[in-house]
Amino acid sequence: MDVVLASGNKGKLREFSALFAPLGMRLIPQQQLNVPEAPEPFHTFVENALAKARHASQHTGLPALADDSGLAVDALGGAPGVLSARYATLFGEEKSDAANNRRLLLQLQQHENRRAAYIAVLVFVRSENDPCPVIAQGTWHGEIARQAAGDNGFGYDPYFYIPALGQTAAQLDPQVKNSVSHRAMALKRLLADLGAA
């Protein structure tokens, strides 16, 4: 069965394709099918992922898989949340990982509580109007370090410290990260639900 992936991220395509193949599903990135980017107007990961999946399915007539993910920091009321990729732009700064990290550290200066979590929500729809989408969430708990560490990963990874592992996400071997991350947790749950469907 062909499934449209509502993303242009090549890393996600590789990771997801390998895991979906045993279920008899072949993932096709939405760009190959001329699907425009979907608007993401919502305040929750679930709503944005569902909107992206329905949008991709509407444009292709195929089942679709979408994800929405980001960082939620306790002391900031869950921010940057769904705006994680463009957090610095909310303060008139450039859109970049470096700017986002600078802004995050600045916002946390006055806070002792540095608990945070990476959240990933995956949504699979069989059709545009699927009344029962398969939704899976993964949450990876950690805290925001005061200093960057590690060269792997991207985004907030150099500052996302996992006490249980004694390292930041950027210090982890990519294979280790891909087996314990928020996206890995969500994917395991989604695959279990699809296998049972």
UniProtKB/TrEMBL annotation:
Active site: D68
InterPro entries documented for this protein: dITP/XTP_pyrophosphatase (IPR020922), ITPase-like_fam (IPR029001), RdgB/HAM1 (IPR002637)
GO cellular component: cytosol
GO biological process: nucleotide metabolic process; purine nucleoside triphosphate catabolic process
Keyword Kinase: no
Residues at which substrate binds: S7, G8, N9, K10, G11, K12, S69, F154, G155, Y156, D157, K177, H182, R183
Gene3D superfamilies according to UniProt: 3.90.950.10
Subunit structure: Homodimer.
Identification of the protein by name: dITP/XTP pyrophosphatase
Species in which this protein is naturally found: Advenella mimigardefordensis (strain DSM 17166 / LMG 22922 / DPN7)
